[in-house]
Amino acid sequence: MHIVMLVCIAITVAVLLAFMGKVTTYETIASAKEKQGKTVTVIAKLDTATLYYDPAKNPNYLTFEAIDTLGDRMKVAYYYEKPYDMEKSERVVLKGKMENGIFEIKKKDGILVKCPSKYKDDMEAAKKNLETTAN
Q: What is the largest CA-CA distance in the chain?
């Protein structure tokens, strides 16, 4: 009985360790710069004034600057077409590597665009509805 329990515990620990390898932590721009050449994930705000995308010259090249919550900036190069409505996003999740001072994203799913809350207007309507119901 004890041997079976020890085997079950060992299997449980092995499964937990396997899942721990897939856990993603978010870095700041400063910590991403310290981890040159290592894949990291950063949440930042897009500086739309620095956005450069010319599909006539190269449809698979986009550059912009990103700003994290601490105010640090970094230049980002993305080697795929520009995500739809990227300029309207509140935040972007960037997964890539710092290479020579530029955060390079070489995977298609390396940018996740966080859209403005589509429920913002609905929340206002719900609040008004709640107030009229309470009265």
A: 70
